[in-house]
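Exercise: predict the fold of this chain.
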Amino acid sequence: MCGIAGYIGSKNIGTFKIRNTLNSMMNRGPDNQSWYKVEKESFNVLLLHSRLSIIDLDKRSNQPFKYEKYIIVFNGEIYNFIEIRENLSNLGYKFLTNSDTEVLLMAYIEYGEKCVDYFNGMWSFVIWDGFKEKLFLSRDRFGEKPLYYLEDSGGVYFGSEVKFIQNLISKKLSINYNYLNRYLIYGYKYLYKSNETFFKGLARLDSATNMIISKDNHKKYKYWKPEIQQDLNMTYDDALEGTKHYLFESVKLRLRSDVPLAFCLSGGVDSSSLVSIAKKYFNHEVVTFSIIDNDKRYNELDN
């Protein structure tokens, strides 16, 4: 879990606001905090990052990560980054780190906005393309990683958390009572029916959505939606083996890490199965967290 934030527009955000914002991002990434500013004649770009190191712990992978005129801030993991890196290496790309961040950026350089089609993972990232002078924002297919944005007359602010944006603009946002009341009446099922949030003027970048911001243009579009494809000739055994294959492959990819991993056990068959697969089939050193409670309804000690 890392933190990202930033701004594009006509304002020149001062160092004091930047430092305050980075301090508020510490909870999302204690390993490194940094920022990068691009100053143009009629607009500025600011990128901030707070790092929780998971892949390639070396400081060479700290962010904002820069290559030529490309700069990226990234929160998440690209699980298949090794396979993507091999493909890009075959195309002649050279890598200076072992991180998925660099692979993501090189994939953008090669494939442009279509790079997200190659990613298996969870992400919210922002790339400044200095050649085309545009900002590219993206959120993963199921919206696992958060990304908020706020537009005003001076430009666009963005961040992993609301408070990052509030620190950059140096004021609290007004509560969206209409949204709040609907949530209290209808519950969590109402929350993601639109990109509206609990604060006025603050929007949520939808899942599976890319957004492009430049000096004269601003567009947003869905890059993916789930589709059901039925194979009526598939046998039960085929379905069973296929499910097993994709489940095992999913666990295998998610065990890629340069730091220890832990599983949260819920007492159900799903989390127990994941731990079992990791231990029995991939020989992973399993560490787990469980709920041990005096209330028997919630106690998972027997499990």
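Check your answer against the key: DSSP finds seven helices and 14 strands in the chain.
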